[in-house]
Amino acid sequence: MLSEANVAAVWLTLKLATITTVILLIVGTPIAWWLARTHSKWKGVIGAVVALPLVLPPTVLGFYLLMILGPHGPIGQLTQFLGWGVLPFTFAGLVVASVFYSMPFVVQPLQQAFEAIGARPLEVAATLRASPWDAFFTVVLPLAKPGFITASILGFAHTVGEFGVVLMIGGNIPEKTRVVSVQIYDHVEALEYAEAHVLAGGMLLFSFLVLLALYSRKGTSTWK
Amino acid sequence: MTFDKAIHARFQVAWPGFNLDVELRLPGRGVTALFGHSGSGKTTLLRCLAGLERQSVGSLNFKGEVWQDDARGICRPTHRRPLGYVFQEASLFPHLSVRKNLDYGRKRVNGGHKVSLDHAVELLGIGHLLDRMPDRLSGGERQRVAIARALATSPELLLMDEPLAALDLKRKSEILPYLERLHDELEIPVCYVSHVPDEVARLADHVVLLSEGRVVAAGGLRETMARLDLPTAFTEDAGVVIEAVVADHDETYRLTRLDFPGGSVVVARRQESLGRRLRFRVHARDVSLALARAKGTSIVNLLPATVVEVADADTPAHVLVRLDAAGTPLIARITRYSLDHLGVTPGKSMWAQIKAVALLG
Amino acid sequence: MKSRFTPLLAGLVLAVSSLTVQADEVQVAVAANFTAPMQKIAAEFEKDTGHKALLVFGATGKLYAQIKNGAPFQVFLAADDKTPAKLETEGDTVSGSRFTYAIGTLVLWSAKPGFVDDQGEVLKKGAFKHLAIANPKTAPYGAAAVATLTQLGLLDAIQPKLVTGENISQAYQFVVTENAELGFIALSQVMADGQMTGGSAWVVPSNLHDPIRQDAAILAKGRNQPAARALVEYLKGDKAAAIIKSYGYAL
């Protein structure tokens, strides 16, 4: 049913979404934590920057990433200095772009989870001799579990659905940067509707199932 | 030596619209009530003692150990202060069973366990709850677990922030006996925040009265509660606390006699056995004065007393009269008219007629 | 009743028709690669004829979809010859109005001066990481690029280095940001007023691929519109031809 090229695109997409989600959980957790706790005047600025991909057309993000990651861009110069070459047209480049692109979908649910937990459990843990790190791992993480699940699902699903940014910096290379959404676009543009249907239908089903899982999940323990 | 056994605290907190500025010496044992109306700063002070109030500036010397001295850049974080803290809401970790909640703090304490887990569990009567999750507990049970959890860390100082405030009357009366046992059986000093006079009267040995972020009065429970020079906010509810011993039961009339240094009062039959200590509270509004021992009155409790001082009450029509009944202070709230009419002045011997006593416990 | 309103109605009709005569406009759908020359031509057209050309730029495929779905375009300048032909067979053009207004020139270009030699030898040396092309399935310049590489016998060797833009603009973007060292793009993208705007280039000989014909046609909505007819005639004229050539198109 799936052509070899389509299988490759699906596999690549799943790999990209998985790696992106893992990185976002690692990077997004401290950002979300900071946003949930700080009273700094920079909170608004950082919050807005994180949320930018929600409102920006992906092409804008893709265009700037192409410039920044390119051989004359600041990150591009850094990666070249480190001997990694430049990131556009590479899988690593897609990961970097996806991390930016899906950031709000991971950071915001985490931030909400952390805000809902509030400062009290940490204070309680401190009066029970737990250091801040200790308290974070033994109290905050377990209590924020629903937030982490939501963040992972949304981050993964949103990366799977990513199109504009990938198009801008991917270069459409089979098995490296040609993900499902780009493959669908190519099929449609080339009037290969049968092939497009298989992938597009699969994507539709996947997205529906993800959202179904998300919306039918029962709220777990809340802080009392 | 006494200096070393005490707790010296000095804190300043400045927030928009609120300032806390206190200097305190708290005794190194017994229960000290931080008493005041909401907004008086009592919870903030408690949080300062615990190191939870980041913006506080000051110093804290605990029995000779410096826990905080901002002038010298010393501030032990909360988790390095050997204290137990009971929050107003039980704040149990919802993802942990009662047993694991109890273990959470205990596991993190190195060295001697002055309070064993079994002792804490037994003291609070929660042995049958250990394997439950917090959401399967009643409000009173949760608060008992929270207290046991704090005790299980073998704290050298126990801080309690209105642990009964979130509970209804029935739950309160369920916990109060446990708190009294703490008081009787543990050596550690306790700071107990409350705005309920009866709670303070029942549990505390010392009182710190707070108003608008300042210490208004501090000292022993009986002396402080009997003072007349307190802001009106406290005099509305003026009264004294008397500690007495169950002296006799009268089965015919179903009465119990309670003796105390200044005399005795008779109350409705109590369950306590003879010799048990009991505290009761006499509100100023329940005390009237007479020049001679009244005859033909339904009031049973009449005590001879000497007028010590007279002060303004909460309304211009009334005054507060402090009396001394052979060493036991009493306060009467009478009209200014009666004051002049009876010629009440310091030194005068009178009879205090006690209409009602509120037994605590 | 009728007699009372007839003069009024006549006046209204007159007013409306004079309005359309005064503002004689033509709505033109233009392939994105022809943006710059068309803006110049439209300005000259307005000056010389008094008609006004309202230009809408976009990808040929998208414009085709819009035309099929009732867009009010009167003239269509496509990036290929297939799309206007398709519209003609589907009856959406004024028959006989179709003509080639420009022939695209494929160029191998790099933003770096001296990177591309004027014989295209750089392709054989292969000293580059990425070569950008437009999507050969959908973009005429992409198809021409693949045809060229095939003709040179280099397609298999270079295939792993190909990065594909969805269209010729994206391929240009890859190259101009130097994320790809070089790419096959349209000469018109790097040429203005008869001059190369920078970098280094090899103009691909036209015998290496089929000509990239860009055809135009008057659409059904342009039937009986003098301004539409006038624009098409103007495009065929000398003034337009000079502009078109100055942007690197052949005729």
From TrEMBL, chain A:
PROSITE patterns: ABC_TM1 (PS50928). PANTHER family: MOLYBDENUM TRANSPORT SYSTEM PERMEASE, MOLYBDENUM TRANSPORT SYSTEM PERMEASE PROTEIN MODB. Keywords: Cell inner membrane, Cell membrane, Membrane, Molybdenum, Transmembrane, Transmembrane helix, Transport. It comes from the Bacteria. It comes from Candidatus Competibacter phosphatis. Residues 10-216 form the ABC transmembrane type-1 domain. It is a multi-pass membrane protein. This is Molybdenum transport system permease. The chain crosses the membrane at residues 12-33, 45-69, 81-101, 196-215. Belongs to the binding-protein-dependent transport system permease family. CysTW subfamily. The keyword Transport applies. InterPro entries: MetI-like, MetI-like_sf, ModB_ABC. It is found in: Cell inner membrane; Cell membrane. The lineage of its organism: Bacteria, Pseudomonadati, Pseudomonadota, Gammaproteobacteria, Candidatus Competibacteraceae. Part of the binding-protein-dependent transport system for molybdenum; probably responsible for the translocation of the substrate across the membrane. Pfam families: BPD_transp_1.
From TrEMBL, chain B:
It comes from the Bacteria. Keywords: ATP-binding, Cell inner membrane, Cell membrane, Membrane, Molybdenum, Nucleotide-binding, Translocase, Transport. Signal peptide: none annotated. GO terms for molecular function: ATP binding. Residues 1-237 form the ABC transporter domain. InterPro entries: AAA+_ATPase, ABC_transporter-like_ATP-bd, ABC_transporter-like_CS, Mo/tungstate-bd_C_term_dom, ModC_ABC_ATP-bd, Molybdenum_import_ModC, Mop_domain, P-loop_NTPase. Residues 296-361 form the Mop domain. This is Molybdenum ABC transporter ATP-binding protein. It comes from Candidatus Competibacter phosphatis. The lineage of its organism: Bacteria, Pseudomonadati, Pseudomonadota, Gammaproteobacteria, Candidatus Competibacteraceae.
UniProtKB/TrEMBL annotation, chain C:
Coiled coil: none annotated. Keywords: Metal-binding, Signal. Residues 1-23 form the signal peptide. InterPro entries: AvModA-like_subst-bd, ModA, ModA/WtpA. SUPFAM superfamilies: Periplasmic binding protein-like II (SSF53850). It comes from the Bacteria. NCBIfam families: modA. Belongs to the bacterial solute-binding protein ModA family. This is Molybdate ABC transporter substrate-binding protein. It comes from Candidatus Competibacter phosphatis.
